[in-house]
């Protein structure tokens, strides 16, 4: 189980490798929200998402002999890129298992970060059995995307930084809105805030139709999404909260918030216009909630994490099209 | 004349108001350039450009009685927004004189930052006489966009941060490429580097057809642009280098670099794709030189300032169109 000591140790291990992202703001966004909005831009993190923190934390926590054999991950998205870059930096071989119909750009990017990409046929092959065979044959260590204590610890370093910067600004009470898939980032931030900024409260934000964490928190037990089809926010679509992350979120987080794809696109456009940041849809849901769902949050200040910026042009164009013409 | 002591004093005055921007990088950009590229993203600065630093520095350097009467500036661009926000924060009235055919968005933004915008007819009215009358009648202090010692000092704080962060990375020699209009940012950075990182050398980067600083440095005396018409890089188009900034650049800077509008657009697209940053054309020329003109620079590492991100959608769309289709 991830502890605050593990988060602090992860911060030491990733220091000088992960980026220390600032808190940003814009008077224009404050006006829309009717209060001060502070943004934690993890789209500026290495590989364009917070996932690098957890990847670097988990791989650096392995003993040298284990790390030298290599790591393996299942992902077609931000976790894959985080693992690939962190592994290369530490001289560890990395194998990423991806469906062969994954976007060419994501396959190319993951290879460009130095990973070996193993493609499989979703219809005819079983991902887990391919992974098991590779792990056994080559002694690779599986790094899960969120339900892994050292990954949660790495994501929690985001929360240490939020606590430090909020304190410097004199902020002692605020909701901290976090884009939430499996809950690794949300639970890590919640643990860090519990220790370093107990007046700050993490709250998961999810896309409409994929609100498993919000419903799970409300029900007090893990609920699944009914479907995994459709939706723009691919980075944060997971079937259900993690078995490690859910108890942490249940103990520490405020109620979840749910955002439409349209509002995520509008938040992406405002991030472009007012913050000069590129956000992906799943990375913009927390900002969308901060801007457009003020009635569901409390306090003079709201903090929102932009969790990633890996977006293709067609979706980005859709986002900018939501802006009023100049 | 701006000194390093004035830059350090400006850093103290703007601390907690201007943003401390990080150095960013991407393995993909390193590969294009064939060396390490570090980016100083001043597009993330308050109001979306480095201009806020100089504005805050200059207004905060006024004595209380003078500041309370207010400030005035001529600008339809980034300087206007920097002055407007900094003045509002310090409780000083601000008057910005803009041509009445300036883009509606820039007029609106400047007003939204709290400034009084005075519009004039370029064909029938004289800007300077309007400014003189307002200054005299209301006791306003003119803040020039670059040829003003406290403005140069404020822009120079960018250089203090570059020196500090480069030192932490063990970088002792590098070219520092700076988007250059009148030379306030370039000369300020050059003074800061002279004091804190003498192995780092500032070099101005300009758009093709508007290379007055490059030609002036080469000739050893101030040269003017032949025309001020056309060109995408509106933020850094000035008739000639400043009388205060040129001697500093002449003493301290390496040769200028000149970039095509097309390469500025390509650099904007790569900043979007690889750094998750929004750059404007004039703000992207230094990155363009770092990526596409490697033969004209030296060393294992190159540092490039992205000076601003205030760009309209039609121009941004042109930039993204330079990317290969996914």
TrEMBL record, chains A, B:
Membrane-spanning intervals of the chain: none
**Organism in which the protein naturally occurs:** Roseovarius nubinhibens (strain ATCC BAA-591 / DSM 15170 / ISM)
Q: What is this protein called?
A: Threonine dehydratase
Q: Does the keyword Lyase apply?
A: yes
Gene Ontology terms describing biological process: D-serine biosynthetic process
Listed A to Z, the keywords are: Lyase, Pyridoxal phosphate
Cofactor(s) required, per the database record: pyridoxal 5'-phosphate
Q: Does the keyword Lyase apply?
A: yes
The superkingdom of the source organism is Bacteria
Q: Which family does it belong to?
A: Belongs to the serine/threonine dehydratase family.
The chain positions of domain Tryptophan synthase beta chain-like PALP read: 15-308
Which GO molecular function annotations are given, in alphabetical order? ATP binding; L-serine ammonia-lyase activity; magnesium ion binding; pyridoxal phosphate binding; serine racemase activity; threonine racemase activity
> What is a single Pfam family found in this protein's UniProt entry?
PALP
Q: Which CDD domains match?
A: Thr-dehyd
